Description:
Blueprint (H helix, E strand, L loop, with lengths): L1 H14 L4 E4 L7 H15 L6 E8 L2 E8 L15 E2 L4 H14 L9 H4 L12 H6 L11 H9 L7 H5 L19 H15 L3 H13 L20 E3 L5 E3 L16 E2 L1 H12 L6 H7 L15 E4 L4 E5 L2 E10 L2 E7 L5 E7 L9 H18 L3
Antiparallel strand pairs: 1-3, 2-3, 2-12, 4-7, 5-6, 8-9, 9-10, 10-11, 11-12
Helix pairs in contact: 2-12, 3-8, 3-9
Amino acid sequence: MRTVLRSVVALLLAAGLAGCVAEGRTAGEDRTWRQLRSAVVDLTELAQGPPGVMVLVQEGRHSRVVRAGTSKLARASEPRADQHMRIASTAKAYSGAVVLSLVDDGKLDLDDSLGDWLPWAPRAWDDVTLGQALHHTSGLPDFSADRAFLERVTSHLRTPLPPRELLEFVTDDPLEFEPGSRYQYSNSDNVAVALVAEAVTDRRYEHLLRKLVYGPADLDDTSLPRGVHMPRPTLHGYDFDDAGNPVDVTELVAAGYAWASGGIVSTPADQNRFIRAYVGRTFFGKRVQHEQFDWIRRSSSEPRGPGANDAGLAIFRYRTDCGTVYGHTGNTPGYTQFMAASPDGSHSVVVSVNRQTTPDVAPHVFRKLREVYRLAVCAADVD
């Protein structure tokens, strides 16, 4: 692994791209930006760290980028804000934007039962409300943790199932707990709410994303593919084999296996536009946002975001020593994401790395990544 990284660094040095690039700053960078620059470089240099890191910070109309490493190993290709990547569970915020937009329009109510709109669902789901599913207090078993599902993915990496069939892996299972009694993150929740959105509108979820989210937020580089192919330009995603060598997993698994819970492909620039619009009430009004900001304290996104994490409806609150932001995190093979914005949506941050990073797999890398998250929030000057 060290040999590979040394080769990459040599390539970057030859191209004048090694280290970190900060755009839009004068020579008098303040201490926070110097710390962020250093932390981003350190993250790429850790054993089993991501090959590349992209941090985009926007204050008002002024945006800046800090980046290090490479978007593709063995090539002098720096991470860029226009490169496509899998956004993982940050896609759950997009399903939240769709459903809460329909709530705002009066087509849905947060007290609607899943059984009201999904007649094929098991009777136990009649006790689960739309709001509980968005809050991860539904008790729905997580289809992505089901053994039969994992066997199906492993044996058919490039051939996804229809969205409803994702939930059929757990429709015969009992609820994990009484709906509303506690918090438990589940990928089934966002698949269920997206199917509800389809049922009430008689439109495919992909159409609803285009109409209710991509259009209003001007997201020209965001899509929900079914298969494995990624748009160009691409921020390549990596994992490590048993020998510690990096492996390109960019197009390993079909996006349809995650669908509304994590299948969206976007760019750092579009992610930034989305989270500013989401928190800034582009998709729904103040009344619905008040209901969205019903916080379950000390309930974290996956992976954990910076500071103290509290769960709302398809959004998380991150309370840091530099201020409070609202957003989401996500991880999937090859990628880890963080996006957040200040309460009025005017200050925002997106952090994208091209390696799946969790506290279980590489705790030392994850600790450094959370430090990058925190410093990015500090650089956004959200207070």
